[in-house]
């Protein structure tokens, strides 16, 4: 099992998504490993490569890597077959560095040991399993979270698709400035809507008199989805609009076949309130690997 090699994945974007789903049927790959994410990077002038790890004719790993000058970045990857030992994962990662050159990687699960030098402390992601029945999902909500959802449902709020993506992006820019954080640029969201409009779910919440008080954008990638943008005004927070939006988004995504919703980081810098909100859904806080410099093996 220790004689393997990385090879170019020479098939289509659709076949890439199918290969990811077949490799890890119990867990969806992160958005950074999706074909649309790679296509957006290519549209921005980046070099993108998709590789597969094979052993004795069997595919045991997949990775999408994106270049910045001479540096290759691996975000939330590689995606390995279940059961592959950490020692073999590390060996495969170092073999990838031997093939590609200078590699910085943030694996989707911890990988450590000789040849993998940590540079940035690992963080945790809130991963919400949407596979259970809706009744089970609702029972899994934290008590206060469920109470706020019930209040929003009884408060006459209206949930609908959001046709004005630019309005959501404008509110998101204002929110980023107010809270002092940075996210993917607005052009990334515009490009996703252009390349894969069917894989972008934008929702808004309004009061009975038509006042928009919250909105959100979700990106769909295979059997997974990511909570990409969430905006809420003071009135939205007071009325539990975000609880209503996220709950209804989860049901809509589940009906489409999405099994897993990535709610984003839940470490201290994300803010205690936002961390409680995400984990209040019943999501698990799952550790990522540290961002690391990978030495060729």
SSE topology sketch:
Elements: E1 5-8, H1 13-23, H2 35-43, E2 48-55, E3 58-68, E4 71-75, E5 79-80, H3 86-100, E6 102-106, E7 116-120, E8 124-129, H4 134-139, H5 143-154, E9 158-161, H6 165-179, H7 186-195, E10 200-206, E11 212-221, E12 224-232, H8 234-238, H9 241-256, E13 260-265, H10 272-279, E14 284-287, E15 291-294
Q: Could you state the CATH homologous superfamily of the largest domain? A: Gcn5-related N-acetyltransferase (GNAT)
SS field, number of helical segments? 10
In CATH terms, what is the architecture of the largest domain?
3-Layer(aba) Sandwich
Number of strands: 15
Q: Mean pLDDT across all residues, rounded?
A: 94
Sketch the topology as an H/E string, one letter per element: EHHEEEEHEEEHHEHHEEEHHEHEE
Q: Would you state the CATH class of the largest domain? A: Alpha Beta
Total number of domains: 2
The portion of residues forming beta strands comes to 25-35%
The CATH topology annotation of the largest domain reads as Aminopeptidase
List unreliable stretches of 5+ residues.
none
**Terminal CA distance:** 16 Å
The biggest beta sheet reads:
8 strands, mixed
Keywords: Acyltransferase, Cell shape, Cell wall biogenesis/degradation, Peptidoglycan synthesis, Transferase
Family: Belongs to the FemABX family.
Domain BioF2-like acetyltransferase: 146-268
InterPro entries: Acyl_CoA_acyltransferase, BioF2-like_GNAT_dom, FEMABX, PG_Glycine_Bridge_Synth
